[in-house]
Structure formats: C-alpha cells, structure tokens
C-alpha cells in the first residue's frame, strides 16, 4: 500500500493536463466554467480534439480504437479534463452503447458503428424509459413485431436525453410477451431518420430542453439491427447501466464544482467566511473518502462486501455529495442567483446590461439541473434497494 | 403563550383559500403571468382586501396585525399567488405606516389599501449579500429637494410600481415616484417566473417631502423582518401544498405493480416532510408574533430562527418533492418544480438559512448579556 501515484501515473497526469490546457478552446472552457448550456456542437468541438489525440473514447480498449487505459488512468484523465474546464463526456455511444457492442455486437455492427462513435459523427440516444417503465424498466411496452427481414416497432419512449440532436437510438423493445417481464425484451438499434419517428422536446425545470419524448409509429427496422440474442435484451441493458452508473459517481465533476465554489468565494469576498470554510472543508472530506473508496475498490484484494453493487454505492454517495456542492454554490451566489435570463444561460446575448454577475447567474439553474443526478441512471432509492438486496441475498 | 386561532382568523383563512383556489388553478400554479393577467389578479387581491389588512382604519385599511398577514400569506403560498406583494409592497407600506409623514401616509396608504397604487421596496444593491450596508445610492440635498443617484437591484414588481421606497445616502429613506425624470427600470423575471427589476436613479430629483423623516436603517430592518415573517408563512403554505401534491402523485403513480406510496421508505419520506411542515407552521407563528416586537434584538433572534427552520424545511421538501416525481419532477410541466423554485427564491430573499443562523448566533450572544 502507498498513498502516492506511481511516477508513470503522475507523468500521465501532467500529459493530460497540458493537453487540456493547449487544446481546449477558450470559448468552450468559459462556457463550461460559467455553467452555461451546451449543445452538440459544443461537445463535438472538444471530442474532435480528443479524437485527434486518440482519447475520444477513454474507456475503450485498444482493439476498438480506444487508448486502452487502466482504470486509474481513466480516472486521472477524467479529473484532469474536468478540472481543466473541459465538458464532460456525455455521449451515450461512448459511455453505454460502445461497451455493449464490444461485448455482444456482430462484426458488422462493430465495424459500422464503433468508429463513427469515436469520431463523434454518430450520436446515440438511449431509448429505455417509457411512461409506464421508469424504475421498473422491465415494463417496457414498445413492441417490435417481425415482418420478413424487418421489425415493425410501435410505442412511446420518454425522457430520452439529447434525442433532438441524436442520429441513432438504441432501445429496449418487447419482442415477446412473457410471464416474467424481463424476458422477451430485445436490444435494438434504430435510425432516427426512419419514417414514423416523431421527437418532441420536453421543457425542463431550468428552462432547458435536454429531454424528449419519442413516438414510434410503425417504424420499420432491419432485423440486422438487433443486438445480441433476440429476447435477451434485458441482460445487455443491465450490463450497460452498470457502465452508466460508474460514470455518474462523478468524482471529477465534484472536484470541478468545488473549485468553482472556491473561485466564487474568492471573487465575491467570502474567502474568509468561517462558516463557508467549515462547510467546504466537510464536503472536501466527504469527497476524499469517496475518491479513496473508488480507488481502493480498484486495488487488488480490496473488494467490497458486495462487489456486484460497488457502482451503485459510488453513484449514491457521489451524486448526493455533488448535489450538496451545488447547494453550497447557490448559497455563495446569494441574491445574485435570482435573476433568470434564458438567453444568457444558453450563451446567447441576454438582457443588456446583464441582470446578474455572469459568474453567478447560472447557479440556480445548475442547482435545479443537479437534482436529476439522483434520478437518472437508476434513482438513489432504487440503488439502495439494490445494495441492500445484494448484501442480504449474498 | 397561546397559538389559538379565533373564529375571525379561520374566516379570513377560508376566504383567502377559496379565493386562491379560484384564482390560481393548480395545474398552472407558478407559470409566469402575462402583464394583463397579473394586473387583473392584483385587482382581485385588492378587492379581497389583502393589501389593506394591516393598514390602519384611518387610512381605509382593516387595522389588523402580522398574524392576519401570516394567515393570508400561507394561503397565497399554497397556490404560488400574490405576485410581488409580500416581498416588496408589504414592507414598503409598513415603512410608511411606521415612519411616514402624515402627508405621505394620506397620499399613499388609502390607495395602496384598495390596490390603486403600488409602492415597492428598493433597498438591495449590487455586491451586497444580506446585511444592510451603507447604500451606494447617493442622496445630495439640493435647493429644497434631493438629488438621487445609483441603482437598486432585484426589486420585485418593479415594472408595475407607481413608486419606490428607496434607501439612500448615509441613512435615509425616500419615496420616489416612478415617473420622476431620471428613474428607469430594467425589467426581468426571477427564477420563480415573477416580474422584478433593477431600478436606476440617474440624477432623479425629489422634493423635500419625499424624505421619510426619522426613518433609517432601523426602520428598514424592521420592515425587512416584517416581510421575512410573512415570507416564512408563504413558504409554509407552499411546503404544505407541495406535500399534498407529491403524496397524490405517489398514490397514483405505479411501478413494480403497485402505487409508489406502498413502498415504506417513501412513506418515511412523507413522514419527514410532515414533521418539517409542522415545525414550519410553528415558527411561522413565532415569526408573525415577533414581527410586531419593538425589541429589535428579540425580533431578530426569533425571526432568524424562523427563517433558518423554514429555509431548511423548504430546501428539503423541495428536493424531496422533485425526487419523488422522478424524471417528471425535472420538467416544467410538473408543478413540484414551480413550488421548489418559489421556495428557493424565498430562501435567497432577505437572507438564507446560513445567514440567519449567523444572525441568530449574534443576537443569542447579546441576549446573554454579551454585547461586544
Ligand atoms: C435528466 C434525465 C435524463 C434521462 N435520460 C434518459 C435517457 O436518455 N434514456 C432513458 O431511457 N431514460 C432516461 N431518463 C429516465 C430515467 O432513467 C428515469 O427517470 C429513472 O429510471 C426513474 O424512473 P421514473 O422517472 O419513471 O421515476 P419512478 O420510477 O416513477 O420513481 C418515482 C420515485 O419513486 C421512487 N421509487 C420507485 N420505485 C421504488 C422502489 N421500489 N422503492 C423505493 N422507491 C422507489 C423513485 O426512487 C423515485 O423517487 C432520464 C431521466 C432524467 C431525470
């Protein structure tokens, strides 16, 4: 055991740091640091630079064009990129679909989709949730019925992040009714341009519209777009959600936001406020404990009591901690958090002169938006159910 | 010690509740009001008699107290109603009632009581947090009047105001007619969709009669405490409504083959929210009773205690309500978010829980004879 990173890891850290410093466009860094809304083009501007460096799919192995990093390197990359002001990697193609295709996709599917994901050419939306299938995801009712070499898909997907700027949809559909709802679900890829698909934006609590609903009306999907075995989609979906959760713990994001608290406290005369210092210190300790827990779990012979739900544990604690940081940010903003200027939040020309200091005006929206992280990727309540169930039935 | 409500109290509460149920349909609660709707609602609130509740009968008000204001505010809170009244117009009228000259009172108060004039409180300045600092808005005596320069920010209802109570100079308060040359308003909406504005005084000249003699920071602080007590009541009403609508959702939304409310861990959440609600109701009463106190230290201590209790309850219940709605809670369509946003705005007005905790500690020490 030792506390220090190895010399190679430290060298890697510096390499990432200087890459971010030299290649992250200043305008994008500013948008991220001010907490403004990001669009596809914003993300792509960063992902393209990562692609040129071979880093656009940090978690992918070398054979699929990823950097083949160790878990520790991935972790260092995440931290350095976010602390350097880069946008998060949100592309579901990289985070979720990629790992599934690598595990169970056909050679044709891998060849066709993986490179385009790495190049940020194809953006994928995740079509799992439905009106009746939220936490109880197995209740998906969108049906896919075989018709020659196609399936005909009908149904209604809900809460689909970024569908308005995605090219493709990976989704869970019902191909067989079964007494056990987990059976009879198939993992399927659908081109968003197929006739019969309607995307409707959903206006969010903070005025943004990251989410959408998707209506599928007799959508014809080629049978080759089934991933893995027919009716076995549930297990692939679960595999994918494990990957999603690991990312949501968001140590790097927490560090990024704690740095933001410090910077704002400095800029607004609160650097010496003892109450703020106490709260910040307490949050830093919690973050440290979480960070070392994540790192310890990666170490040899240090498995937790319930290894199958480590990602859930990190997600619960990581998201709740991050929400506390956003609470503190709101507090630092004080009355400056109250004016609400939607155009300015998008980074467009807002009211002139600005109705609040630019570094404060997005904090209320950011706080509200942060409430989602204990909901998506499986809610905190459901994670706690999973953790205790895994322990009790072990 | 007695927290009983009289028959008159109940009648007032029921009247305001009935009014709010009609005027603010639940499924639209919290939506930004267009100017015409906002004006017609203002007239309706005036007709109900809210604006004159605590104005003396000599000026055509009902001559009631902060307790009646609390009851009305709680009902408005339940339906996210009332526009800028509680945060801005109520404390402005309070200042006139307490410290205005006779001529100022007779000019403004009877018209305020019937909703024909709106007076907003313009005290906050850019760079301030919650303590009342010496205003950067200057007031220079000139001939027989005053020349005012500077900007007041985040004034609720600024766009619709006929006049402002403005703190300026070393320690003075003025009534400034909104039509005074040099007075301009930059309008915007706050997070809760309500209209607000920054008020700039650019060489605005007011007459000597505009000075509220004898009023300074102490009166302003009393008015802010008074409005804070009312906001505590408003938040309490919003918390109550939020618990009701969230519980209704948990009863109807099914997952895993049963209504969500059947899950015991979610029942525990309801229990915690109810405990928060009952504590908020109590502290809203305490704040209302303290609002009338002449003992500034005692008033500060109790009202800060209320704002801390209710601020924390509001944050917790707001977060809980969103979480219980799942992704639905993150949408603009869902009312939970609108309540959470109003509660958030109330928390950041006149001091959040952390600020009031510090203020409480300061006055607690003074209460113990430690005056340093
Ligand atoms: C910002 C955002 C982005 C999203 N993006 C996507 C996306 O791209 N693709 C996609 O498919 N989905 C997406 N989702 C949907 C997300 O996966 C669901 O919101 C989540 O699974 C919860 O389902 P629900 O919203 O229907 O809540 P519900 O399942 O209705 O839950 C409501 C409340 O009840 C609680 N609850 C439910 N069951 C239990 C239980 N058994 N025990 C205790 N408590 C329980 C929950 O924890 C929650 O607090 C997104 C959601 C959000 C908020």
Automatic annotation (TrEMBL), chain A:
Residues 231-390 form the Acyl-CoA dehydrogenase/oxidase C-terminal domain. Residues 125-219 form the Acyl-CoA oxidase/dehydrogenase middle domain. Pfam families: Acyl-CoA_dh_1, Acyl-CoA_dh_M, Acyl-CoA_dh_N. The keyword Transferase does not apply. The keyword Oxidoreductase applies. Residues 7-119 form the Acyl-CoA dehydrogenase/oxidase N-terminal domain. Coiled coil: none annotated. Its cofactor is FAD. It comes from the Bacteria. Keywords: FAD, Flavoprotein, Oxidoreductase. Belongs to the acyl-CoA dehydrogenase family. This is Acyl-CoA dehydrogenase. It comes from Acidocella aquatica.
UniProtKB/TrEMBL annotation, chain B:
It comes from the Bacteria. Residues 124-201 form the Acyl-CoA oxidase/dehydrogenase middle domain. Keywords: FAD, Flavoprotein, Oxidoreductase. It holds the Pfam family Acyl-CoA_dh_M. Residues 7-115 form the Acyl-CoA dehydrogenase/oxidase N-terminal domain. Its cofactor is FAD. Residues 214-358 form the Acyl-CoA dehydrogenase/oxidase C-terminal domain. Belongs to the acyl-CoA dehydrogenase family. PANTHER family: ACYL-COA DEHYDROGENASE, ACYL-COA DEHYDROGENASE FADE28. This is Acyl-CoA dehydrogenase. It comes from Acidocella aquatica.
């Amino acid at each position: 055991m030792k506390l220090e990173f190895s010399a190679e890891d430290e060298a890697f850290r510096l390499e990432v740091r200087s890459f971010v410093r030299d290649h992250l466009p200043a305008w994008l860094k500013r948008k991220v640091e001010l907490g403004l809304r990001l669009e596809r083009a914003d993300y792509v501007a960063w992902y393209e630079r990562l692609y040129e460096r071979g880093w656009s799919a940090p978690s992918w192995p070398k054979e699929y064009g990823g950097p083949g990093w160790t878990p520790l390197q991935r972790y260092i990359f995440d931290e350095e990129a976010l602390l350097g002001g880069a946008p998060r990697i949100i592309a579901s193609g990289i985070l979720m679909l990629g790992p599934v295709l690598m595990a169970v996709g056909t050679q044709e599917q891998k060849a066709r989709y993986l490179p385009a994901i790495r190049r940020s050419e194809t953006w994928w939306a995740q079509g799992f949730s439905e009106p009746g299938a939220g936490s109880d995801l197995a209740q998906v009712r969108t049906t896919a019925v075989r018709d020659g070499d196609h399936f005909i898909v009908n149904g209604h997907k809900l809460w689909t992040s970024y569908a308005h700027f995605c090219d493709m949809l990976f989704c869970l559909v019902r191909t067989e009714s079964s007494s056990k709802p987990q059976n009879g679900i198939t993992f399927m890829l659908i081109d968003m341009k197929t006739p019969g698909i309607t995307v409707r934006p959903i206006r969010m609590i903070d005025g943004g519209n990251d989410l959408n609903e998707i209506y599928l009306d007799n959508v014809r999907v080629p049978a080759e777009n089934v991933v893995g075995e027919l009716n076995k989609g549930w297990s692939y979906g679960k595999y994918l959600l494990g990957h999603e959760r690991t990312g949501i713990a968001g140590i790097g994001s927490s560090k990024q936001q704690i740095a933001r608290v410090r910077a704002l406290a400095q800029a607004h005369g609160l650097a010496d406020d003892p109450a703020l210092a106490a709260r910040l210190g307490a949050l830093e300790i919690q973050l440290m404990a979480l960070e070392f827990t994540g790192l310890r779990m990666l170490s040899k012979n240090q498995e937790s009591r319930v290894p199958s739900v480590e990602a859930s544990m990190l997600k619960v604690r990581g998201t709740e901690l991050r929400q506390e940081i956003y609470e503190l940010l709101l507090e630092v903003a004080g009355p400056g958090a109250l004016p609400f200027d939607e155009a300015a939040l998008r980074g467009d020309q807002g009211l002139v002169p600005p109705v609040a200091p630019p570094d404060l005006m997005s904090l209320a929206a950011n706080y509200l938006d942060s409430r989602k992280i204990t909901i998506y990727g499986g809610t905190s309540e459901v994670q706690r159910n999973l953790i205790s169930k895994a322990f009790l039935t072990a | 010690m007695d927290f009983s409500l009289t028959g008159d109290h109940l009648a007032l509460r029921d009247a305001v509740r009935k009014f709010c149920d009609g005027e603010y349909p639940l499924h639209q609660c919290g939506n930004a009001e267009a100017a015409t709707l906002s004006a017609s609602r203002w007239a309706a609130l005036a007709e109900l008699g809210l604006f004159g509740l605590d104005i003396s009968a000599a000026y055509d008000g009902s001559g009631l107290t902060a307790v009646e204001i609390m009851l009305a505010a709680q009902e408005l809170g339940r339906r996210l109603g009332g526009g800028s009244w509680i945060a801005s117009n109520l404390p402005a009228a309070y200042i006139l009632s307490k410290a205005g000259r006779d001529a100022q009172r007779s000019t403004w108060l009877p018209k305020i009581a019937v909703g024909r004039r709106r007076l907003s409180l313009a005290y906050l300045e850019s760079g301030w947090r919650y303590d009342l600092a010496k205003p950067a808005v200057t007031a220079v005596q000139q001939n027989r009047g005053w020349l005012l320069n500077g900007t007041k920010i985040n004034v609720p209802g600024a766009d619709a105001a006929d006049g402002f109570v403005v703190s300026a100079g070393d320690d003075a308060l003025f009534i400034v007619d909104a039509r005074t040359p040099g007075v301009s308003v930059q309008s915007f909406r706050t997070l809760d969709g309500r209209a607000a504005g920054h008020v700039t005084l650019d060489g605005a000249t007011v007459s000597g009669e505009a000075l509220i003699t004898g009023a300074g920071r102490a009166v302003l602080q009393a008015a802010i405490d008074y409005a804070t007590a009312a906001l505590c009541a408003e938040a309490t009403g919003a918390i109550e409504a939020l618990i009701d609508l969230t519980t209704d959702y948990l009863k109807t939304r099914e997952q895993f083959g049963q209504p969500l409310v059947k899950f015991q861990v979610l029942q525990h959440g309801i229990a915690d929210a109810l405990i928060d609600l009952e504590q908020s109701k109590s502290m809203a009463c305490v704040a209302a009773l303290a609002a009338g106190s002449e003992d500034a230290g005692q008033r500060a201590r109790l009202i800060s205690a209320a704002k801390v209790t209710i601020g924390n309850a509001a944050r917790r219940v707001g977060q809980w309500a969103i979480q219980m709605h799942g992704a639905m809670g993150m949408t603009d369509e869902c009312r939970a978010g609108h309540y959470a946003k109003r509660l958030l705005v109330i928390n950041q007005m006149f001091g959040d829980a952390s600020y009031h905790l510090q203020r409480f500690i300061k006055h607690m020490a003074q209460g113990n004879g430690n005056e340093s």
